Amino acid sequence: QRQQIFGLNVSQVKQKSTLAFLLDEVLHPFYIFQVFSIILWCCEDYYYYAFCIFVMSVWSTLSTLKSSKKNLKKISEMSKFTCPVVVYRKDGKGEKDQDYPYKNIDSSELVPGDVMVILPNELDTLPCDAILLKGNCIVNESMLTGESMPVNKIPIKNEELRDLDFEKDDIKDMENYCLFAGTKIVRVKGDVKNTAYALVIRTGFNTAKGSLVRSMLFPKENFFKFYRDSFKFIFVLTMIALIGFAGTIYYFIKFGVPFSVMIIRALDLITVVVPPALPATMSIGTSFAISKLKKLNIFCISPNHVIVGGK
Predict the structure, then answer these.
(1) What's the pLDDT at 96?
(2) Angle in degrees, 0-180, between the axes of helices 208-217 and 47-79, rounded to the nearest 10
């Protein structure tokens, strides 16, 4: 019943289709403006420049698409983790020196409320968030916090466990006795067999590791001053283009220029003031930045944030 409520203890990242990636990239207003500019230049028989912009746009789009797909796949492989664990359950089997039944299961079957047995040299990486009930553990949390020094975890006291509210309490308030998913177990101290026991409290994407993965997949939209200034600059250029557009239409009508030529020349003024090659140039630079970051084992699935990071 608990399994049906909480689901499997896995952080499985759903892979986006190539079409979804492509639509996210090409439906940007800048790319739509590029398509409009290329069509306009072709109508003016200005094929060479239009072809160059088209090739640059296609190359940058495909390059960004390829990098984003590879990085998302890498994050999916890094987040997916399962291992065999020992828990106490009613349907488990007992031993002569044990009063409680135990059961060997896959970590994907863990649910909140399970009591997990932590044995030295058998459980290397924690598959869930759990509160230490008995024994001491030294863990390496560098994957989550960047802290290079191992951290000592102590068992929770009975009165603290009784007063805990898992729905409201911040996980930081439990960090002294909470074992986080994804952290490495360095050493276990416990009873005669050096065995520790922990209560599972969070699984899947609700764990600290799952929260980290979610923040990478769905980053917050931070509207930086860099973006605000960029949009202000483009807005000013657009206003100048519209003023020039109106002035050009007025004089063309005054001198009796054919309507088709009038529209093409007026729209051409907008493509001169607002440079259509800008997004293609930015995409190429971003693609090179992502490839260099990848060589350093830094993966990015949101190319727009690379520009802000470089700033």
Answers:
(1) 42
(2) 170
